[in-house]
């Protein structure tokens, strides 16, 4: 369990640093010639999986990210939440993972 928590702590650190001065406009830009996922989609996808890990650890909670990021391909990002909302959820799920 310690190794898994270390991985989540490292990922948390990298994501927090990566999003620090990123704007919503930049975060919604798609990669690979406008066909690949954006940073925003990737963070949403990671949040979906964080909720799934919490469920496996017995700390299940509603997962608002699954419908848009679970098995769904990336879009132009117009309907994605703001980075501020994603950061808030990221911090909340990190705290929940630490506790679980």
In short:
With 100 residues, the protein is mainly alpha-helical.
Explain this structure to me?
The protein is mainly alpha-helical and 100 residues long. The chain has one domain. It has six helices and no strands. The N and C termini lie close together (10 Å).
Q: Assembly state here?
A: single chain
Please give the largest β-sheet: none
Q: Kindly state the mean pLDDT as a whole number?
A: 93
Q: Return the structural class.
A: mainly alpha
Number of domains: 1
Instruction: Bin the helical content.
Output: 55-70%
Shape: globular
Note the gap between the termini.
10 Å
Write the layout of secondary structure elements.
Blueprint: H1 2-19, H2 24-28, H3 31-34, H4 39-56, H5 66-69, H6 83-99
């Amino acid at each position: 369990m310690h190794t898994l928590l270390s991985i989540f702590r490292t990922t948390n650190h990298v994501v927090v640093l990566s999003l620090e001065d990123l704007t919503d406009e930049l975060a919604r830009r798609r990669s690979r010639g406008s066909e690949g996922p954006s940073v925003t989609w990737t963070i949403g996808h990671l949040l979906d999986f964080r909720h799934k890990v919490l469920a496996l650890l017995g700390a299940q909670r509603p997962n608002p990210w699954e419908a848009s990021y679970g098995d769904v391909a990336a879009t132009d990002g117009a309907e994605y939440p703001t980075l501020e909302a994603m950061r808030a959820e990221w911090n909340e799920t990190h705290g929940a993972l630490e506790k679980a």
